[in-house]
Amino acid sequence: MTQSVLQQARAALLEPAGIQEQDLTGVLDQIMSYQVDAADLFFQHSRFESWVLEDGIVKEGSHNIEQGVGVRAISGEKSGFAYSDAIMLPALTAAANAARAIAHAGQQGDLQAWTQRNDRQLYLPRDPAHDFSAQVKIDLLQRIDAKARKLDPRVKQVIASIAATCDTVLIAGSDGTLCGDVRPLVRLNVSVVVEQQGRFEQGSAGGGGRFNLQQFLDGDYADELTGEAVREALLNLEAVAAPAGTMTVVLGPGWPGVLLHEAIGHGLEGDFNRKGSSAFSGLIGQKVASDQCTVVDDGTLPDRRGSLNVDDEGTPTQCTMLIENGILKGYMQDKLNAKLMKTAPTGNGRRESYAHQTLPRMTNTYMLAGNYDPEEIIASVDKGLYAVNFGGGQVDITSGKFVFSASEAYLIENGKVTRPVKGATLIGNGPDVLTRVAMVGNDLALDRGVGTCGKDGQSVPVGVGQPTMKITELTVGGTSA
Amino acid sequence: MSNSSHGQDLIINSDSVELYKQRVARVLEQASAAGATAAEASLSLGKGLSVSVRLGEVETVEHNRDQGLAVTVYIGKRKGSASSTDLSDDAIAETVNAACDIARVTSEDPCNGLADTALLARNPPDLDLYHQWQISVAESIDVAQRCESAALNYDKRIKNSEGASLSSQEGMQVYGNSNGFLQAYPTSRHSVSCSVIAEDGQGMERDYWYSSARCADDLEAIGSIGTTAASRAIGRLNPRRLSTRQAPVVFAAEIASGLFSSYISAISGSSQYRNMSFLLNCLEQAVFPDYINIREEPWIKRGLASAPYDNEGVATQARDIVAAGVAKSYILGSYSACKLGMQTTGNAGGVHNLVVSHGVHTLEKLLTKMGTGLFVTELMGQGINRTTGDYSRGAAGFWVEDGSIQYPVSEITIAGNLKDMFRGIVDVATDVDTRRSILTGSVLIDNMTIAGE
Known about the structure:
A: alpha+beta; B: alpha+beta; six-stranded antiparallel β-sheet
């Protein structure tokens, strides 16, 4: 039997510095004696490696170590935060002194005894690149290059990369939280440039999750991604100008769920709703979507990019109902905002690293399957857009306006998918876009594991998903009348 | 938080600079001992304070200290890189070894290597980039509170706030390579920002404003940052949509820099040699109208993007990027320059103050010149294809008729192709936004597609 993740985290983070658990109690005690409500410590060691192929050769690799400890003291709505790149007791004490200085006005919180939790294991707690030699990674990238060039002579450039991270964290809180987590994360990306009669186009595909590199080596995983990138690039050679204006839009399954992330997800994060700055503030219990729409945020899916055993405050992740049959049900919460809103944390407290403050963030956000056959959905549209792949998106929480940019889309004419069109940005209004969902498909799919969400300058890995979905009115930002 | 070997306190004076330089010199020696035939290393250290207040109350107080070492080694023409935030002797040794291990297995690339020694900065100028701000936590809170309260008191429709914040950061960058280059210089950056929410019966709109400078004395008046944020939020209330149409567009100065950063991305060496640019092989071609000039001015005193040398130690110099509308130079580091058979332009790591020429009109006059069209003050999303130049982004701003603002608009997109947009620049106004690495006024473009209702 392997050791628990807490033991692993202790061994990686505390033991090298000679820090004992009673030292953690001591530091928390030192903060709590200063009249604050709560305090926590977040230790992290992160190992990252990447390999990049370009021009047919692996010309670059990098290896990065990031480690440190973040200390937070909370008093009411106030947070004091400090961190140190050095994991050692004097630095920890100094950071604690800096963090606690915010709070004189707080209630005197109590320091709770540690409560041990059963370890959940949504992913294997080990470095995802550990068992693989450099040569294995280089060979994989070269196989991708060869495959892409063999697929079509118009392929002129292939850029492929492998990235692997192992994050080991230990979280200790004044509320008795003491837990560890070892979080693997891998990603494989393929990007190609094709040329036809002087016209250059690009296509790309990526995938990954909280598993080890073996998955990239097994079966057709890498070949599929490569084929996908080449297919998208060749398709772009044929693409005509996208239409401009408001029209019916059918979104394909999987990654187009980025719509939910932007239009709904951010607006349901606890901090914005506590502050009343979200277009969704105060709408719990109200109808914000058509009856066919049920949307959840689920951090418990095994091996997924957005999943976590516990969030960055030590709260176990869960499947949180956001919208049920069209009715707004709940927000995503970290401890601070849950307490201020007098509700329970939902396992959505996340931070980019020890050097960043915790915020309510999404994990894997997706819409549950409906009843329609995807082909039936397409057949129901006389004239519209069928968008199956997207780049990024963005939302203005307060006005509710959101955008997301299609990278692969087609015209729908008389119930049939016809010509491919160039990329275009789609824009809508979060609180009402889902009220215009007319049909939800039975083909729920999650994305391939490429999402990164940015908020307040912090990036965290997330997942999205949805079935095929028909929206009767959405504005498409093309150039063709 | 002071300690002799770990998590050192950042002290910026001539003695400490020597110590940091010695540290980098040791790393280069270690790399050589570990088998590297050439190496370069950069050490960055930073510290700072950020506070935020919301509705008059303190929300966060953050003390940051950052340190990082990045090493790139070459074994012949093979390359490996590694970095660490742990600066203990053991961790540094491990980092150097990790980089060497990688360089033993990567492929040879004839373009890999350090920058040409002849181009390195011999006597880097002092660009006046470091100004400490002796401000306490209490004083910082006071500044943020004054900024926010100016916004909250501006208009009764300012009903909520995302807060005001102050950040004061300072740091030290040390770079050395095994061709004998070893330099360091300190920098600082201070900023104050405010974001508030206007509300009336119809809905909520948020907007923000900020000021950022190397020296606190150069910051905009604190109250004016707040009132600008407030007036911007108020101006957005009750937006309408537009019907789908073609119209001229003015990009406000604060977002117009994005147009030119797309240009920089298109003429950067990596986009050119990878054929991932909508302006392939564009040198000496007319890309903009003949009244547009773009210069790189890396030595502006206190400039936010000023630098005496680039990330490879190559001396920066003022030069024409675009002259009379014609592309005069790419943006190159040593590697991409070699791939293109050219010489580096001292842009490893990016551009250092890009100055876009402007005409004689104020923004107001520019809107008059446009007559009827769209004045865009906010863009959303990433919808730019850098291989084809296709451009499609969410937008918000104002509809203008006969040169005067009629009403705010939102939930629309603007689209076109960057090649046409560059050629279609009619004029640049005098209202230059100095807070960015690209310094430009508002830009009038002759025609774009607006998609809406």
